[in-house]
Amino acid sequence: MTILALGDSLTAGYDLPPDDAFPVRLEKTLRTRGHDVRLVNAGVSGDTTAGGLARLEWLLSGETPDAVIVELGANDALRGLPPAKAEENLAAILKILQDRGIPVLLAGMMAPRNLGPEYVAAFDGLYPRLAERFDVPLYPFFLEGVALQDRYLLSDGLHPNADGVQVIVDNILPHVEALIERARRAGG
Asked: Is 45 a catalytic residue?
């Protein structure tokens, strides 16, 4: 089974050795749990939801993955881009995947709190709205247990270190195992 991890630097493994990137660590963990899976790292540092959308058709033009983890939006928020545009881009991504019958796990993000309560409410709310609209499972916050925890972050205070990546893997693991089961039922 092939799982495409579509994301930004948090997926790509920014400033980490390749073996510590999220998809590599997740694949290793899943394999130790008996899952015959291959994760494809489709993370691009600096990518926004628009960038992910622009790359998606190309990513799907080769081997079609059995499932996709969508982890995008952090850079939209860091740049203060309109939440409505991020939601529109993510909706387009989810529609493309849905139209192709590819099961998805949507990984949510949270806006930096210094952008103000209106921006935060609009941005943070887009992930639950999309999950409901497209009837896809939502992992509410990709950086759960890692964000603002110095021991799990690189010196930039934004990106996870190797220990932080393992926390992400451990936290998201039940959701990914459920995604694998949905993909199996869908014929993946």
From this structure: no
Q: Catalytic pick from 8, 66, 76, 159? A: 159
* Residue from 52, 28, 68 nearest 170 by CA: 28
| 9 belongs to the catalytic site | yes
159/20 Cα distance (integer angstroms): 12
Model-wide pTM > 0.90: yes
Q: Which of 15, 19, 156, 170 is catalytic?
A: 156
**120: number of Cβ within 10 Å:** 17
**Looking at 8, 9, 47, 76, which residue is catalytic?**
9
User: Residue 19 catalytic?
Assistant: no
Q: Using CA atoms, how far apart are residues 103 and 9, in angstroms rounded to an integer?
A: 23
pLDDT > 60? residue 188: no
- By CB atoms closer than 10 A (0-12, 13-18, 19+), residue 130 is buried
- Indicate the helix (H) or strand (E) that contains 175: helix 162-185
